[in-house]
User: Fold this.
Amino acid sequence: MLTGLGRTGARRETKLHRVTASPMRFKRLKEDIDSFMARDPAARSRLEVVLCYPGFHAILLYRVAHALWRRRFRLVARIVSQIARLLTGIEIHPGARIGARLVIDHGFGVVIGETSEIGDDVTLYQGVTLGGIAPSVDSHAQVDVKRHPTLRNGVIVGAGAHVLGPIIIGEGARIGANAVVSRDLPKGVTAVGIPAHPVMPRDRIAAQRFVAYGTPAEGCPDPVLATIESMRAQVTALQGRIGELEARLRRHEDTTDERAGEFVRRTADDAPVAAVGDRIRR
Ligand SMILES: CC(C)(COP(=O)(O)OP(=O)(O)OC[C@H]1O[C@@H](n2cnc3c(N)ncnc32)[C@H](O)[C@@H]1OP(=O)(O)O)[C@@H](O)C(=O)NCCC(=O)NCCS
Assistant:
């Protein structure tokens, strides 16, 4: 903030800003490197990330290009972004708005359009497109209009997936490799396929701590899937109940057989006595 300081004050403030901005920049850089380390099991050291990760290089150059773009050096910004593309195979439009700790893993073929917005801690794999639906149709009318997606914090977009249009991908949502998404996705959802549809994760631990009557369907945004999950839960519960009843029936039958056998045995033992009694009575 330079208002009300006068020229000397403003100069001092700018110097101060430069000094304080450096540790901030350094912190951000360190965060970027650490997020590659945290999200790529193949990353062995920070130096490896700095030297060998095109995603990291692309993000660094994007920051330069974006700063230029915001200062209205639009052509220079585009040139920097094209140099980054040439070096890394990742094309990020300098106008895109990207939060902290973005990881672009491998990254070749990633395209991030001009009006894309990316939150913090997002992960993109190679071949991802954050694009417009029909940029070539009536393109003049689309200038400076929001036409690319918004990815909220923690979103993961799998390799080769295309996210198209000014849609919103909710926080923590995961998009499967090769999916095509053209509609909003709610928070925390996993979506796969073309067109992308929500799926229930095959979480074996959750399956083990099974709770009857539809509880596993909790959090599933697709009503059809939620119904199927609920029915599956009920069928499993009924199977358990039937098994229990069958076991009780078997136990009951065994007891009845034993009693019947004893009765037959006793009747057979008493038969000669009964015959003598008959004879006496006669
Ligand atoms: C979408 C994704 C995140 C789901 O992971 P998850 O939550 O563990 O989900 P699951 O593996 O339990 O799969 C759930 C269902 O979706 C299906 N599925 C998973 N990923 C899919 C995909 N990309 N396309 C189509 N179906 C997919 C599974 O077959 C499963 O279906 P089923 O229940 O009928 O068997 C993951 O599969 C994925 O695609 N990640 C991208 C990773 C990537 O791009 N890696 C590149 C590294 S270089």
Notes: The radius of gyration is 35 Å. The mean pLDDT is 84. The domain at 13-199 is CATH 2.160.10.10 (UDP N-Acetylglucosamine Acyltransferase; domain 1). The first strand starts at residue 91 and ends at 92.
